[in-house]
Design a protein that fits this description.
By secondary structure, this protein is mostly helical. It has one domain. A two-stranded antiparallel ribbon has the order 1-2. Strand 1 and strand 2 form a beta hairpin. It is elongated, with a radius of gyration of 23 Å. It starts with a strand and ends with a helix.
Length: 195
């Protein structure tokens, strides 16, 4: 950091790298409300996945009734739509397993977007991107594992539709995280505190 002389002139500069945030003696900046945001996002993720899946089930049911397709086609173990139906039903009843889902979501949030503010990441893009990626992997992976016991295209349908539900829920959770933590404002406040 440069040293300032009289009248604000720079008298000497050190070779320390320029950072986005204030650092004193190797300390990382203290960002508030990250634990609260991860806690609330973990609970919201379980509820959001169930609500999105319930909405998709309603849309699927409406389309099937309008098209005149009998629901007995979903009883078979083959076809993309059978896997999609399994994924939607599993995601809709996600809240039954909240005691498993919520702690895993907390862990993933703390180890992914929860560490972004401490690293000085201010842009919203990485938060949304990684929220969607982890949401898609968690929900799509779970529904894909169950759909894996079905025929090939049904397993693909379960993974794709489950991943889509999880990605949408991840985007919603990332926006909730950003609304609570406000990393851009907190990091800029830390930088301005130096001066």
């Amino acid at each position: 950091m440069p040293e300032f002389g009289p009248n604000g002139t720079i008298s000497a500069a050190t070779s320390s790298p320029v950072r986005d945030y204030a650092v004193e003696d190797g300390e990382t900046p203290r960002i508030r409300r990250v634990a609260l945001a991860c806690f609330l996002c973990g609970v919201a993720a379980s509820i959001t996945v169930s609500l999105i899946a319930a909405l998709l089930a309603f849309v699927f049911g409406s389309i099937m009734s309008i098209a005149g397709t009998p629901p007995s086609q979903f009883g078979s173990n083959d076809g993309f739509m059978a896997g999609a139906f399994i994924a939607v039903m599993m995601a809709a009843f996600n809240w039954y397993l909240f005691y498993i889902v919520v702690p895993i979501t907390w862990l993933v949030l703390f180890l992914s977007i929860g560490i972004f503010p401490r690293r000085g990441i201010r842009d919203h893009g990485p938060y949304y991107r990684w929220g969607a990626i982890w949401g898609g992997l968690l929900v799509g992976g779970t529904t894909g594992l169950v759909g894996g016991g079905m025929a090939g295209t049904a397993a693909i349908g379960a993974f794709v539709i489950g991943g889509l539900i999880g990605a949408i829920a991840g985007l919603i959770c990332a926006s909730l995280f950003l609304a609570i933590v406000r990393p851009k404002r907190q990091i800029l406040d830390i930088v301005t505190d130096v001066f």
